[in-house]
Known about the structure:
7-stranded mixed β-sheet, single chain, 8 helices, 25% strand, two-stranded antiparallel ribbon, alpha/beta, cell wall biogenesis/degradation, 37% helix, TarI, Spore Coat Polysaccharide Biosynthesis Protein SpsA, Chain A, globular, 235 residues
Amino acid sequence: MIFAQVMAGGTGKRMGNTERPKQFLNLAGKPIIIHTLEKFTLTSDFEKIIVSSHPKWVQYTKDLVAKYISDERVVVIEGGAERNDTVMAAINYIEENYGAIDEHTLVMHDAVRPFITARIIADNIAASADFKAVDTVVGATDTIVRANDGVITDIPVRDEMYQGQTPQTVNVAAFRDFYNQMSEEQRMSLSDSAKVMLLAGYEVGIVQGEESNIKVTRPFDLRVADILARESMDV
């Protein structure tokens, strides 16, 4: 079975002094998370669409979903302390309700990337047939430099460099098995699910993202996203 996870557990500290985490801020009249969820409800492949929320905001999230989303596949659960703990919370939910089956696939996406497209979602699902892990990327347009202590140590070939987006897609059993073997230090240092799968020895496939698949992190991003959302409504 194929499951979606919309990750909404962050508190949005980089957004500044806001009364709600950034995923709940309004974008063209609706909360960002609702824009994101609406994109996922358009894909019929998902058995469940799991929303992982910060424990303090679970009921608030449930109320928003009830107000805006009429899709029984959407369920709200608590996230974890770190990103991969949040992934494991969704995996635990899947296995408790659908069994620990090796074929389960989880498509994970940031709640604050509201411009995800049906094409990107479909490409992640298709690539998961060939890879235990999939990442969504766009080619780097700027030169990437590696530096240490304020000094450049390497300038990689730009044509080989990509910027990671989401969704990231994993085989549930493969992720679970390696995560359970990791030390606490490894779990704290690895915030990227694709990197977890790389360390586990799996090839990670890539699918092409979109420049518009932006992450709303700072106030400037919110202003840009609001313009994009209003433009899409006018089309």
